[in-house]
């Protein structure tokens, strides 16, 4: 530990080095009259520009087959746990789906909800071959649903000109595909009109 005299000598030497143009008398005068503010200019750090990570283009995604489900994975039983997760998600979203819940409130939430894992049925269609298809939604795109049926067949069902129904805890909701031509991410921000034309 330094004594008071050593400390004074250190401060005096430090100030002498820091302010070589000033005389000793001026330094002493500054010390007795006011505090000394030493200016220090740290070197400026150059900001590195962050490179934006560029995602794959639609063509690259198709070439890499990122969204294709392998044939050995196309089994209904594999995706039943996904359906159970979806049901719990909807119950949480609708605060329990109580019997006294207002249908239009539940309908409004379902319109914006993520449907991956929901079991849907094609109830009406302009193409009769689609009517009756039932299965779990594995993928939702802007214009189509990819549905896995109980027969382990992957069906690509267009939204346009089809009416889908989904049931959870006794509540049945109908989705008019022609009014549903949106990606799942876009639907969450869209305002739907619950009343309107319901034709195919």
Overview of this protein structure:
- The protein has helices at residues 4-18, 24-33, 58-64, 80-93, 103-112, 184-187; strands at 119-125, 134-140, 144-149, 154-158, 162-168, 171-176.
- With 200 residues, the chain is α+β, with helices and mostly antiparallel strands.
- It has 2 domains: 2-32; 73-189, SH3 type barrels (Roll), CATH 2.30.30.210.
- The protein has a 6-stranded antiparallel β-sheet with strand order 4-3-2-1-5-6.
Comma- or semicolon-separated keywords:
single chain, 200 residues, alpha+beta, SH3 type barrels, 2 domains, 6-stranded antiparallel sheet, 6 helices, 6 strands, elongated
Question: Helices and strands in order, then pairings?
Answer:
Elements: H1 4-18, H2 24-33, H3 58-64, H4 80-93, H5 103-112, E1 119-125, E2 134-140, E3 144-149, E4 154-158, E5 162-168, E6 171-176, H6 184-187
Antiparallel strand pairs: 1-2, 1-5, 2-3, 3-4, 5-6
Q: Supply the CATH class of the largest domain.
A: Mainly Beta
Q: Work out the number of β strands.
A: 6
Give, in order, the helices and strands: HHHHHEEEEEEH
**Cα-atom Rg, whole angstroms?**
35 Å
- Looking at this structure, what is the CATH superfamily of the largest domain? Ribonuclease P/MRP, subunit p29
Helix content: 25-40%
Mean pLDDT figure: 81
Strand content: 15-25%
CATH topology of the largest domain: SH3 type barrels
Overall spatial form: elongated
Distance between the termini: 90 Å
User: In the CATH hierarchy, what is the architecture of the largest domain at level 2?
Assistant: Roll
Biggest sheet strand order reads 4-3-2-1-5-6
Total individual domains: 2
Structural class of the secondary structure composition? alpha+beta
Low-pLDDT parts are none
User: What's the helix count?
Assistant: 6
């Amino acid at each position: 530990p330094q004594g008071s005299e050593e400390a004074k000598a250190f401060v005096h030497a430090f100030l002498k080095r820091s302010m070589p143009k000033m005389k000793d008398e001026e330094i002493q005068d500054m010390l007795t009259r006011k505090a000394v503010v030493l200016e220090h200019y740290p070197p400026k750090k150059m900001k590195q520009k962050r490179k934006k990570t560029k995602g794959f283009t639609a063509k690259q995604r198709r070439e890499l087959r990122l969204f294709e489900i392998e044939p050995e994975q196309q089994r209904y039983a594999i995706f039943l746990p996904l359906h159970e997760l979806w049901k719990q998600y909807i119950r949480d979203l609708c605060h329990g789906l109580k019997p006294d819940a207002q249908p239009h409130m539940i309908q409004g939430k379902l319109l914006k909800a993520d449907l991956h894992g929901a079991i849907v049925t094609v109830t009406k269609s302009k193409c009769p071959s689609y009517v009756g298809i039932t299965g779990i939604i594995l993928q939702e795109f802007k214009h189509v649903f990819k549905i896995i049926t109980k027969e382990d067949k992957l069906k690509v069902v267009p939204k346009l000109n089809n009416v889908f129904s989904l049931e959870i805890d006794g509540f049945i909701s109908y989705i008019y595909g022609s009014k549903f031509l949106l990606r799942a991410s876009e639907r969450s921000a869209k305002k739907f009109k619950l009343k309107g034309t319901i034709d195919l």
